[in-house]
Amino acid sequence: MNYFRFLLIFSILFCTCFSYAQDGKKINYTSDRQVKNEERYPGAIILSKVENQVHFTHQGIEVWCDNAVFYNQDNFFKAFGNVRMQQGDTVSMASSYAEYNGTTQFAFASGQVVMQRPQTTLKTDSLFFDRVKQQAYYRSGGQVTDTASVLTSLVGRYYMEQDKYSFLSDVVLTNPEYVINSEQLDFYSDTGHAYLYGPTTIESETSTVYCERGFYDTRGDTGYFVKNSQIDYKNRQVEGDSLYFDRNRNFASATNNIIITDTRNQSVVKGHYAEVFRERDSVIITKRPVAATLQDKDSVFIHSDTLMITGVPEERVIRGFYDVRIFKTDMSGKSDSIYVDQRTGLTKLINITSGPVTSVTKRRNPVIWSGESQMTGDTIHLKSNPDTEQLDSLMVFDNAFLVQKDTVEGYNQVKGMELVGLFRENDIYQVDINKNTETLNYMRNEQQELIGINRTVSSSIRILFSEQDIDEIYYFDDPEGGLYPEEEFPINQRLLIGFNWRGEERLTTKEDLFEGKPVPQLVRIQGIPLPEEQEEFFDEREDDDLLLNENSRLQPEDLQNSRNLPRREQEEIQPVNQLKNTSSEDENEQI
Questions:
Q1: Res. 467: pLDDT tops 80
Q2: Does residue 347 sit in the same domain as residue 489?
Q3: 0.90 cut: is pTM over it?
């Protein structure tokens, strides 16, 4: 008996709770006027505004409208005229028409739809809203206005819990300072952060950024780009495995495998880290940097620990610091630092070593190799013709020393305080050495037999070259010395004071620019993750739990995800209410 009583009580309680649960899911409403039109709307109540709008409530959502058709049995309504929808205090929506399925909590709005969030406003012609997923979706074009930018796209999806928009197809973000065009853009309203996927450009008056995966802070105006990225300024292009961009500071940096192209001066700089200051028109490159400049149809390569390029295109200056190396097919050199003025064609090789001169610091003096000749001194200047781009002259200041290997043995040597070399078609043909000059050279006949060793001191000397070899020597102002037989010239006197042959350092190929230097360890690039795989917006939760109600204006074919539509159909798709024979305004008039 007690058992049956228990079952009875349990059944009553279960039915009561189930009834209560069912009632909790029902849509509630208030309306000034209620009528029925069974012929046109069988099983529905027609609700209308007199003084107050029709008001619906359902599980945290409120809807106001001028007129409505409510299917109580189906828990479904269609709203017309000045429709407003409110979910909590964070989401509000206005439209000309809306419908809502209380069973599936699926809503649709059309006709000048405006959805507002604290940070953004979305405008579109047709909007789908799934309250279970807390997502809104449009596929016929939409516009989102942020505090700093306006975004438009053909397809858009809003994730309310993440406060995130995912824009697809013809995405354009317009800011007073720049315009972003992208294939896909994920935008977070609370931060203004945008993640860029697929071919993307960021264009402004001063620069154009291209990337295929990147990040941009639309409020802070900084960006980070990691795939096929480059920044184009008016006369300079920056590429690298990763790029950082700061619009406020007119600053950009590049990391790993960077290439900076000067489109005005036909020069390219490579390395693994660079900083670009657009306002100051300067670039600093480190980590195995090398600059290549076209000169007379031949490239001049400059490498150093650090390269710095400054100045407007017409007055570019290249500076290199520490362990400078130069290579050209017919000339090479080394120095502590280098200064290249591309406007005047002047190149300075400078010794910046301070302190007393030692055997070590001597090796750091600038050196130039041209053919078989080696020239050293405290400072070396090379002068090119800016118009013809050919080498005109060479000047060595203080402790000038010219060395050339003899064809058989020993070294031909000339030293003095200053040296001036003249070039013709990039080949040296004359050298003048002034102040306290000394020469020591091996004199040979046409059969290359040694005649004797000449050692002479004079105030100045002129040397003429033929095919880059010493051909004639002229002495001026009371030269002293003479020609000595080889056996009478002591071996320990066959090198002038200050002699320092550095032929083993000579660069013979472009690869010698990095000879003896370790390959730099590249920085690990922090990537940008691929976009999350999106689940279908339209899906059927259960066989008997359809998103649509049979009285909906929508048809099953209207609920197609954008990825299921051909590209051409996506571009030509129209708002849903324009696909129907009856518009929302016509239906409203009939009510």
A1: no
A2: yes
A3: no
